[in-house]
Amino acid sequence: MAQPDTEAAAETAGGQDPQYGDRLAQFEEQRGRLWAIAYRIMGTVSDADDAVQETWLRWQAVPAGTTIDSPRGFLTTVVSRICYDLLGSARARRETYVGPWLPEPLLDGAGGSLPVGAAGSGRTDGPEDRVTLDESVGMALLTVLERLTPAERIAFILHDVFAVPFPEIAETVGRTPDAVRQLASRARKRVRAEAPRRTVDRAEHRRTVEAFLSAVMGGDLDALLSVLDPEVIWRSDGGGKVSSARRPVIGRDKVARFVRGLVARGAQGGALRVAMADVNGAAGLVFAHPESGQAGVFAFTVHDGRITEVDAVTNPDKLGHLDLDRL
């Protein structure tokens, strides 16, 4: 996660505004949370970085002597509004994207990490139907959020994930609090209906992914079939930059054949490296082929000990923020 250039700004602005030091500290305190909000809204690391950088610039631009009663609320509104404005053009680009569009993955344990401070939503309790912060960063849910309107996505993420009050969200999307409440309700219903069922047991999820990896690398077709759900869906995001399936592969037999073909092609020339890593908060896989330069990140959805969805990101433009050389 890129950081706003606060040090350079300090040299030019620190002596001009006696409040600068306080504002810098206030921004740094909220920066991880701001990035977490921006990533969930935008689904890309670069857009989240840009949104946080622009938020910093606007925070700097607040006139000297201005009192901000709630820096947290102010900064949340600013970063959300920036993302709201960005979503329109982002959605237009994604409509012409080659093949399925998937979010950019975050890794922990393979040269990348979830952003510092991302776990601090500030919520102490809430309705049971709210998603948790960990769930909200999952690839499967982020993919579902792509189907919402920008206003619905903002309302859902800010209210259901970060517990931002409706009046504050209304300032972001230019609606009334009642209208925002309806937006969040519609988004919640759609997420409930379209988000895949998944296990909340991290140990079960990891065991299932480990069984998948063992079956694939061992060439055990029966074991591979046993760990795949009959209606499993495999989505590949190559962005037209690398060879990948441009339509989802659906069904246990088809996915098994598809995966075996991937492994056979990847093994040609040797040096294929595969490792377990946490992908967007849950066990996944990362592969790299130093000789060809190809790499990819696989995120899994698991239910009842079987894999129901696989999101495979191989577009090199979406992997540039990861240090895959450390595999």
Automatic annotation (TrEMBL):
Keyword Transcription in annotation: yes
Domain RNA polymerase sigma factor 70 region 4 type: 139-190
Classification via NCBIfam families: PRK09636.1 (NF007214), sigma70-ECF (TIGR02937)
Gene name in the database record: sigJ
Family: Belongs to the sigma-70 factor family. ECF subfamily.
UniProt cross-references to Pfam families, sorted A to Z: Sigma70_r2 (PF04542), Sigma70_r4_2 (PF08281), SnoaL_2 (PF12680)
Annotated RNA polymerase sigma-70 region domain residues: 28-91
Species per Swiss-Prot/TrEMBL record: Streptomyces auratus AGR0001
Entry protein name: RNA polymerase sigma factor SigJ
GO MF term list: DNA binding; sigma factor activity
Region (Disordered): 1-21
InterPro entries: ECF_Sigma-70_Domain, NTF2-like_dom_sf, RNA_pol_sigma-70_dom, RNA_pol_sigma70_r2, RNA_pol_sigma70_r4_t2, RNA_pol_sigma_r2, RNA_pol_sigma_r3/r4-like, SnoaL-like
GO term, biological process aspect, one: DNA-templated transcription initiation
Domain SnoaL-like: 209-310
Assembly notes: Interacts transiently with the RNA polymerase catalytic core formed by RpoA, RpoB, RpoC and RpoZ (2 alpha, 1 beta, 1 beta' and 1 omega subunit) to form the RNA polymerase holoenzyme that can initiate transcription.
Keywords: Sigma factor, Transcription, Transcription regulation
